[in-house]
Amino acid sequence: MKVFRAAPGWPIPPRAWRPPPGWEPDPSWPAAPDGWEFWVDEPRTGKRRGLVAGGVVAAFVVGLFAGISAASDADQERSERELSALVDRQAAQLESAEGALADAQARLEVAEAAATDAQAAVAALDADRTSLALQKEQLDARALELDTLAASLSAREVAVVQQEADATASSGQSSGTAAAPAATSYANCDAARAAGAAPVYAGEPGYGRHLDRDGDGIGCE
Q1: Does any domain span residue 195?
Q2: 202 domain residue, yes or no
Q3: Domain count within the chain
Q4: Residue 200 bridge partners (DSSP)
Q5: Residue 193 falls within a domain, yes or no?
């Protein structure tokens, strides 16, 4: 059977004593030597050792409770320090999270402003597109009017040219009709007088030297 062997300078525990959970030696006790074996086989004991062991039980129990009390105080102090450190870490994490949240909100506001500007720009582009489409329709209508006017002017020009051609042809026909007497000749002055052409001057239709005997350019005078 293994029994607990106290380090040198420690109170001797009872033979069947087992350290309770969380037990630590009293800080006032000397440190155990390096490699000290706390659990060893139970040694043979006699009456004298039993009396000695019984005599030191009270001292060990007092030291044990003192060690437990000191360990409890140390544990409580360590727990308080750990709790304080944990609270500090959580407070720092909370502050960091709040800063990150503020940054995210600021970026969100910037993004929303940019989205609003983009929507306004799109609306302006749509308005410009609508205005350009209306202007194009107006220009197309004006171009159609100009094409119609040009066609009308062309038709008028054709009509004027045709009228001029007709007038020229009519004038030519009139000239041809008036020039016909130039080819007329009179056999004598009686014929010229009968035709109402006497006197006949040189250069006029029907003039001939045989009608102008004195050669003064006037026939049948």
Answers
A1: yes
A2: yes
A3: 1
A4: 219
A5: yes
Which residue's entry shows tokens 């109170």?
Answer: 11
How confident is the prediction along the chain (221 residues), in pLDDT tens digits per residue?
A: 788 899 999 998 888 888 998 999 999 999 999 999 999 987 665 544 454 445 444 555 555 555 555 556 677 788 788 888 888 888 889 888 898 988 888 899 988 988 888 899 889 889 999 998 989 999 899 888 888 887 776 677 667 667 776 776 666 555 554 444 446 788 899 998 999 888 889 888 888 888 888 889 899 98
Is 112 inside a domain boundary?
no
Q: What are phi and psi of 200, to 5 degrees?
A: -110, 120
Mind spelling out the 3-state secondary structure of the chain?
CEEECCCCCCCCCCCCCCCCCCCCCCCCCCCCCCCCCCEEECCCCCHHHHHHHHHHHHHHHHHHHHHHHHHHHHHHHHHHHHHHHHHHHHHHHHHHHHHHHHHHHHHHHHHHHHHHHHHHHHHHHHHHHHHHHHHHHHHHHHHHHHHHHHHHHHHHHHHHHHHHHHHHHHHHHHHHHHHHHHHCECCCHHHHHHCCCCCEECCCCECCCCCCCCCCCEECC
| Threshold 0.90, pTM exceeds | no
Structural domain range at position 211: 189-219
Return the structure tokens found at 221. 């005078």
